[in-house]
Hints:
By secondary structure, the protein is α+β, with helices and mostly antiparallel strands. Strand 12, helix 1 and strand 13 form a beta-alpha-beta unit.
Amino acid sequence: MADFIIMPKQGQSVESCIITKWNKQVGDDVKVGDVLFSYETDKATFEEEAATAGILLAILAKEGEDVPCLNNVAIIGGQGEDISVMNGAAKTQDVRQAGDEKVQAAVVEPSGPIIETTQRTNEDSRVFVSPRAKKTAERQGMDAAMATPSGPNGRIIERDIYRLSEETAQSPAAPQQAVPTADVSAEPGDYTDEKLSNVRKVIAKAMHASLSNMAQLTNHTSFDTTKLLEYRKQIKARKTETGVEDITLNDMILFAVSRVLKNYPSLNAHYLDDKMRLFHTVNLGIAVDTDRGLLVPTLFGADKKSLGEISRDAKALIKAAQSGRIAPGLLADGTFTVTNLGSLGVEVFTPVINPPQTAILGVCSIVPRVRETDGELKQYPAMGLSLTYDHRAVDGAPAARFAKELCNALENFDLLLAI
Length: 419
């Protein structure tokens, strides 16, 4: 009997995955353990192995297609098996030769969550809207029925709502004034068009949604790194002598954040529309630059780890993220994120929050500054910190107090370790 192959669900926060390559084609023999296809989320890449043997009778999703998790993507069955009535929703799309038998490739109604329906102006037509798309449309004050469907069987899914929102924003509210024309067309050799990767598209959508749906505000501050640099110097000397694990400035910042953050529950939280989820432990997201784009692995229970444990575990997470094969569970459930651009010489920036978190800390470079001490101007090394917070969840005063306490903890790092 033929079986459906579904798109796996990689973690609770993953709603869909993009098929990057089919390793088997319609009519191919399939053995248990054979890699059927590879796919990716906005976080990592995976391979799906066959759990049953047989003939690949149908491919229901093309390469490059964004498929909702748990939806059908293929059918495996016996040679020449009739699959036209599977689930009562098959539609012949392609016919290929498999040995001496013809195998039909079918498009089958995907199994997934029950969908809502809404009415267009035409009484005889109905448009199907996924619950997620309906909620997004309501949040943006849009009529979901006006979106152009791109989901299975003409279903409107969330990305269609975002596309409708972008098209609406780009529509001119009034006739544009004529602009004098000039011959400014580029020569064919002056530019190169590079198609966006699927991961870049997902990241772009997530960042746009973050800025569109939050009231984000950034406070910039700085602290004296004299003692922090001196302590790091001592650690490096000990590493040379004893071979202990190297501790970076970023490790030390993660340690300080994990301790101070517990005093500010609204910053160590998720904003969930009608409620705030306040966490009793600190799960730090660490922004990592990879070849595939920005990934944010989670350092779980950071507030319970020593400086050495944070250094070791953070390095392992960063390495796994850069390899592109990190476990999905390590890319979710962060309660606060730290992103560091200091090594690239950035003196101040505005990091974007990773929803549903309520805040993110940007770490900047060290620059020389001058201040008056005992009536004299003295130079000191200052590191900038940029705290972006969701003003729906966090007021300016507690955000400022958190930044001030964090700066004080970093300026007196030896005392922080003693607590």
